[in-house]
Write a structure and sequence with these properties.
This protein is α+β, with helices and mostly antiparallel strands and 321 residues long. The protein has a domain of 100 residues: Helix Hairpins (Orthogonal Bundle). The chain has twelve helices and nine strands. The strands form two sheets. Strands 3, 4, 5, 6, 7, 8 and 9 form a seven-stranded mixed beta sheet that branches. A two-stranded antiparallel ribbon has the order 1-2. Helix 5 crosses helix 6 and helix 5 runs antiparallel to helix 7. About 2% of the residues have low confidence.
Length: 321
């Protein structure tokens, strides 16, 4: 839920409720509450419906009831992009990158060594240097080019074993090069974000923030990850931008939407959501236990979810730019 400058409310859950109220032809009044107060007030019968992007959990359903899910999402991690110096340090110490480069070096040595044994005495075109050491270097370069660039012309090799090997390596390197390219691209892309975080397990030794009494906070607690609790996501985003924490955890959809909106206003330009999602979440409206309006509300909700207007709203709120 978003509070506008004119003190009105907007957001995906508010839009949904407005459409439900219109469908059911009911009058309503919206008042502002934090998440724990919404759950307690609905449980005590002081509120009829709690409208927000509230995750449906077994623990909460022990106290109150929920509508059908109106949006499915996951938890996600947001970080602040690093500076060039930190990025280069992370890339140079990135274990995956070092393993890939080491594998390329070994593969080039093996391929180059095999071709050297087969071709160095009969192929003056590929091995033109006079000394054995220089020819070995040529063999390594040949192997490296074969591994990274792809197969050479079949007729560049003089021996039959060399030509047969070329055919087999041509098939192998077609897939190998594509795999290595994808792996390196992923490694460099994530290195520009935060190569230290490859998922929630990497948060244990970092300063992490989460919204108090939220699903993300409960998840981190269950995973024994110490974290700072913030009253709302806006406070979390500010803390992340000010380097008070290394990462924040919240619903992916909410993080993407708020960061997107702030970037449109020229704020938080360096914040980004990592491409790792975990712990599936289902959003629902909070309703009283045994509410007489439950069936009517759910029927209206399902009808709205199928509408083109709802799909457009999801694209507006959550599509990344």
């Amino acid at each position: 839920m978003i509070i506008n400058k004119d003190r009105t409310f907007s957001g995906l859950s508010i839009l949904l409720w407005e459409k439900i109220a219109e469908e059911l032809k009911i009058d309503y009044e919206i008042t502002r509450h934090n998440l724990p107060d919404i759950l307690k007030s609905v449980a005590r019968g002081e509120l009829n419906v709690g409208v927000s992007c509230i995750s449906i959990t077994p623990e909460r359903e022990e106290l109150i009831d929920f509508s059908h899910s109106f949006y499915e999402t996951h938890l996600a991690i947001a970080v602040k992009k690093q500076g060039y110096a930190a990025t280069m340090k992370n890339l140079l110490t990135n274990t995956k990158l070092l393993i890939v480069l080491g594998f390329l070096f070994v593969a080039a040595c093996i391929v180059g060594g095999i071709y050297y044994l087969l071709e160095n005495r009969v192929n003056d075109k590929l091995y033109s240097m006079n000394t054995k050491r220089a020819k070995l270097i040529e063999g390594f370069i040949l192997g490296l080019l074969f591994i990274t660039k792809g197969p050479f012309n079949y007729f560049e090799f003089r021996t039959l074993p060399g030509r047969v090997l070329t055919v087999f390596l041509a098939i192998f390197t077609t897939f190998f090069i594509a795999s290595i390219t994808a792996m390196l691209a992923s490694t460099f892309t994530l290195g520009l974000l935060s190569s230290d975080i490859n998922g929630p397990n990497d948060l244990a030794n970092l300063k992490v923030g989460a919204k108090q009494a939220s699903t993300s906070s409960f998840y981190l607690t269950n995973q024994s990850i110490v974290h700072r609790a913030y009253p709302d996501i806006e406070s979390m985003l500010m803390a992340l931008n000010n380097n008070e924490v290394n990462a924040i955890v919240a619903d992916a959809a909410v993080l993407k939407y708020l960061i997107k909106k702030h970037k449109e206003e020229g704020k938080y330009e360096e914040l980004t959501v990592l491409p790792y999602q975990f712990e599936k979440q289902n959003y629902g409206l909070v309703i009283e236990n045994n509410s007489p309006y439950r069936e009517q509300l759910n029927r209206a909700l399902l009808k709205i979810r199928k509408s083109q207007e709802w799909r457009q709203a999801l694209n507006t709120y959550f599509a990344e730019q």
